[in-house]
Amino acid sequence: MDLRQQLQLKLSHSDYHDIAQLMGYKSKSGKAAQRITDVLADRYLGLYSGGFDFKYRSDEFISALCSVLGLSISDYKNDLDAIHGEYLDRRDRYKSYVFVDTEFKRKSQPVCVLAFCEGMRYIELDYEIRVKPMHEQVKYVQSLVAQHYKDTKGKISIWGDVRRYVFFYAEGCKLAISLDGVIINEPEEVSIGKATLTVGGADITKLATGEKMSPEDM
User: Fold this and answer.
1) If you write DSSP's letter for every residue of 18-48 in order, what string do you get?
2) CB burial class (10 A; 0-12, 13-18, 19+) of residue 177?
3) pLDDT in tens, 152-201
4) How far apart are CA 29 and CA 53, in angstroms?
5) Element (H or E) spanning 111, and its range?
């Protein structure tokens, strides 16, 4: 059993408020009990979730929780190393994506409208896809773009008709893919004029449009 499973097992019939009190928090501390819930739900056991606690840092909280439950944190070094490794890989791995190329050239369209529609031109790939071997990623993207073209009927709002898709899979590396998912070539250049909303020099496009922000956007 890994650390997460052990914690879940040990806490399965426990009152989190009682556990928090044993960890040194005030009686019936709601915030501490909620933190235990959040730790169990987080893929990184809350080690990188931020937040503020007067009593424990994230790593200290896990250690104290283990101690109260009769677990030795040192026995789970491999689990913690694996969690740390995955976190760094998710944070640092190239954020590959597919650009929906309509060969758009702005005429009279308002910049603010373009900014709100900007996300329509990008298809981000989940981490689980990005860690796959390259040939599997390409196969997945070929199927993805063919379905996207079918679903959108070849047109994306203000940007116009889809001409091709471009898969950016590594820094400086890309593949052009036809509308039915066939690899065309590696294009020399792709013109991407990005419309953004800024406040004080900071890009707030995702925040303003309600688009989900990833850790690297924060």
Assistant:
1) HHHHHTTPPTT-HHHHHHHHHHHHSTTTTTT
2) buried
3) 999 998 888 999 999 999 998 899 999 999 998 766 666 565 554 444 44
4) 12
5) helix 111-116
